[in-house]
Amino acid sequence: MAQRSRRHPRASTRATPPLPTKHVALLPLGTLLLAASVSSWAQSSASATEGPTLGTVTVREKAEEAEGKDAFQTRRTQIGKGNQDIRDIPQSVSVITEKLMDDRKLDTLREALHHTAGITFAATENGTDQDIRLRGFPVATVGDLLIDGMRDPSQYDRDTFNYDRIEVMRGSASMIFGRGSTGGVINQVTKQPRLMTEHQVEATVGSRGYARTTGDFNWVTGEDAALRLNVMSTKAHNGGAEIDKYGVAPTFRWGIGQRDEFSIGLFHLDVDNIPQAGISWLGGTVPKVEPGDFYGTRSDYLKGRASYMHGKHVHRFDDGGELRSQFRSGSFDRSQWGTRAGFAAGTTAANLNPATVMTRSGLAPRKDRYDGTYVQSDYSNKFDWLGLKNEVLAGVDAAVEKAQRYGAWGTVGTNYNKGNTTLGTPDDGRTLSVEPVYRETNHYSATSVGFYVQDLLQIAPSWKLLAGLRFDAFNGDFRQRTYPNTSTNVPNGTLQTELSNNVWSQRWGLLYQPTDDSSYHVSYSTSFNTSADTYQYVTPQNANTPPEKSRNLEIGTKLDWLRKQLSTRLPLFWTEKYNERTTDSDFAGSSYLLSGKRHAAGVELDVVGRLSPKWELYLSYAWVPEAKIDQAGSTAQASVGQRVGLTPKHSGSVWLSYQSTPKLRFAGGFNGVSENRPLQGTSGAASTTNSAPGYVVADAMMEYKFTQDTYGQVTITNIGDKLYGDQLYPGFVVTGAPRAVKFTLGTRF
Q: What are the sequence ranges of the domains in the chain?
């Protein structure tokens, strides 16, 4: 939901009074602990100042927010911890701003990520989870999804109504974020209160009963305090699949721009959907059905609730240093039962017709609950040490995570027969008299803590050297229930396993910045994955298996053009998982080996910004010619040399906006990928029998301002009503959204 910021009459800087000594006691415990660890740095620099008075604090928030609300381009990010210029990060970083999400009507994280090259989506055995792949490596399994820089590993329907922007950093990043992050990380940046009373309401209606209302309300409640409330309600009847969800996210922030700044907030999202059914491959390709046709049942469901509390404290030292501490604690409940539609024996692409019989089987029902609490403190400052300029970043983070998983038992189980239909009768209204009954299968509890330090040294007028090191300690306890048969929920045993890992990660980078408009870099970074997380439970096979390890080598450039109005980014990368878990025929029943290896190599290109006062461009493209299985255990030797699954050679998105008159704006663009193949088996190799053909989908938008604050939009997605494979699984494919027309009316006041 885009918002245009009005210029606030306050000055952009604020002189801050001295901090009374008694206020120091109010600092959060985590802040004090980290402050103690770096106090010698702060004191050494503070000694050059006279008295305890804090210098002028620059409030950048208005300019930075305006970048994302009124433009596709942004030049600063918090994805690397702290607030940094993108040009100072020696890895590829892409940003999807609020304006782009609003232009293309991107309601969910998955929809938004379609517009960043190099990202694909796997369907899952229950047909409803988000399984994101970046450069061919899994993302949403460990620590690769973030909210405001903190881990967000649970599975739920991530809606964009409270997003300020989405940041994608590619390449190994465990030195910053801990376990996970082989292909990269995705950071969801939430909306924060501002010193500006302004509200915005949008209502959108569209094809197949689509109706969405969002509200963004921001009140100034004091000299340096504000309250922001974002709300959302969405309903749609997508040809049988349904969307029914609402969300609310209030945040209160005070001390804005002062020495000590605080915020506290809540988030709640409630989802009750009927998911789109998967359809079996036919003749090795996506079957010729009508785009958007639904072959599930009215008894399918995806229900979930996400609720959490979050808080943040920023302390600004006299010498310019900043200590940022935050926490998030919440619970996530989810249950789901999807459908896989198949074809009767003898069906081929040649004899497919409206009378063709289609079978329907219930995918594995699933229910789980996840509880997580995360805390972290990050300290940043600039120092002159040994005649060199240093930008230091240091931090500590910790997590306590618990999860319970349930499986269906009794009448309903995997592949439950949901009855037949025909190709010509999608959404036949079938309901079932039974539904899954669940029993606990797995329980997970774990703690983790990480410490890191990074320094960016100015070693010459145009040269900077980045060096970072991190230590992580992970401890987990896992219980797996065993049952005598499928007709009882009384376990006859429990398998309990413990796991403990201590791992180091590193990050190196060299930057050459001859001008303010150019930056060239080479970087090396590592990452690791433990043998378990909330969605990959420990078994006797992997209990004693050390973490998988990965590394990323990147050479790239970031250039600004047209007086910094246009930014280009061009990295060449090599990402390799060189300690991958594999199975060997001699040990398949007792342990995994770390004998696997795979890699991906390619080029990415981003071009974002204004070509002229009237033309604005967003372009993201990835070419991945190399994505190969290099080594595998003896049980998967046939996969060696094959291409990695879910890694198309070409993928990209382009969006071009033209301001025709002060009131009228047009925009349009394309998304597309080349041929894509699902995984085959557990080796990660691409299927040799099934593939989704490449596709290009066109979208368009027109916006008209009736007044300065009231506007209307017409958006058309998938203009050509293209049938394409969006989420791929070895046994089936979930097709992409059909053509949709949406009408939006919005106002600010």
A: 13-195+202-282+294-345+373-396+440-748
